[in-house]
Design a protein that fits this description.
rod-shaped, mainly alpha, single chain
């Protein structure tokens, strides 16, 4: 305790709490912006990463479709 006083490092409890709350808010905000960027980010095609992945998987599945099972052209 004497070392803290000698170095003038002591903080009032209110200042310490304010600093803690500020850091917690900053962490929460960074997590929120990361999530929004991950969930709501749209590519040039207007699709989210999750939608793009689902579309690519569907296209890959359809590549193996037997042409004889497709409808005839009109």
């Amino acid at each position: 305790m004497a070392d803290i006083k000698r170095r003038h490092l002591s903080k009032h409890a209110g200042h310490w709490c304010n600093g803690l709350i500020l850091q917690l808010l900053q962490i929460t905000h960074r997590q929120w912006t990361f999530r929004n960027g991950t969930v709501h980010l749209k590519g040039p095609d207007g699709l989210s990463p999750r939608q793009t992945t689902a579309l690519v998987r569907r296209c890959e599945d359809l590549l193996w479709t037997d042409p004889s099972t497709l409808l005839d052209e009109d």
